[in-house]
Write a structure and sequence with these properties.
Blueprint (H helix, E strand, L loop, with lengths): L3 E6 L2 H17 L4 E6 L1 E4 L4 E3 L5 H14 L4 E8 L20 H16 L4 E2 L2 E2 L4 H4 L14 H10 L17 H11 L6 H20 L1 H11 L5
Helix pairs in contact: 1-7, 5-6
Length: 230
């Protein structure tokens, strides 16, 4: 029996990304998947509040509960930002070497998270560094949502030109992918809307363009594709 994928996602933009792009792609390979579940930000006996990563505790409790309810033929994977994760998020037991790359750091956190959940059906994925990384595969994709704003897109292209790939764009309150977009948009009297503008940009890009520019994302998707029935 083929594995069925459950997506556990940070917010509406990630949910849309799964529903409109990743899910249909997996369907063409014969891989069953389920509508995404928003992360828990509060878990009570009679109610779970969802959407947005505030603390790790509710996420851990929710994931373990979901895994307990699922059979062996289910896989739960995630779409959550590496940047801005809460301070109580799982971390490697030993410090990484000085000079560790952002990719090495993110993979170490994913490994620590997998160890904390301790279930072979859980396959964590963290965006390096956040959802907007996908958009920076080609900033001009934002023209779909902001037609006629070529000057802003040119400025965004120039701002990110020094990086080998968008997953290298660093994770500070000033230089994270979303912060760069917001800063440049504000300089051009624009307002960045992640849910609508960001989603349209990613739809315009398509999976092939994203995979070519985002190697960590590509590795994760390749792993999911390997679940296709023979």
């Amino acid at each position: 029996m083929s594995k069925s994928i459950v997506f556990y996602v940070e917010g509406p933009s990630e949910r849309e990304f799964v529903n409109e792009i990743i899910g249909p792609h997996l369907s063409t390979l014969g891989i069953p998947w389920h509508k995404p579940i928003l992360v828990a930000n509060s878990v009570r006996k009679d109610r779970t509040s969802r959407g947005g990563v505030n603390k790790y505790g509710p996420i851990r409790k929710d994931l373990r509960r979901l895994l307990h309810r699922q059979g062996d033929n289910y896989i739960i994977t995630t779409l959550i930002d590496y940047y801005g994760r809460p301070s109580d998020f799982p971390a490697p037991d030993a410090p990484l070497p000085i000079g560790a790359t952002p990719l090495e750091k993110a993979l170490a956190v994913e490994n620590a998270w997998a160890q904390d959940i301790n279930d072979s059906r859980f396959l964590p994925f963290l965006f390096l560094h956040e959802y907007e990384t996908l958009i920076l595969s080609d900033p001009n994709s934002l023209l779909t949502a902001y037609p006629g704003e070529e000057d802003a897109m040119t400025a965004l292209v120039q701002d990110t030109a020094g990086f080998e790939n968008p997953e290298d764009i660093n994770d500070s309150p000033i230089t994270a992918p979303s912060k760069r977009i917001i800063r440049i948009f504000e300089a051009h009297n624009l307002r960045y809307d992640k849910v609508t503008g960001g989603a349209l940009a990613v739809l315009e890009l398509g999976l092939d363009a994203i995979r070519q520019k985002c190697p960590k994302f590509n590795c994760w998707l390749t792993m999911l594709e390997s679940l296709a029935p023979n």
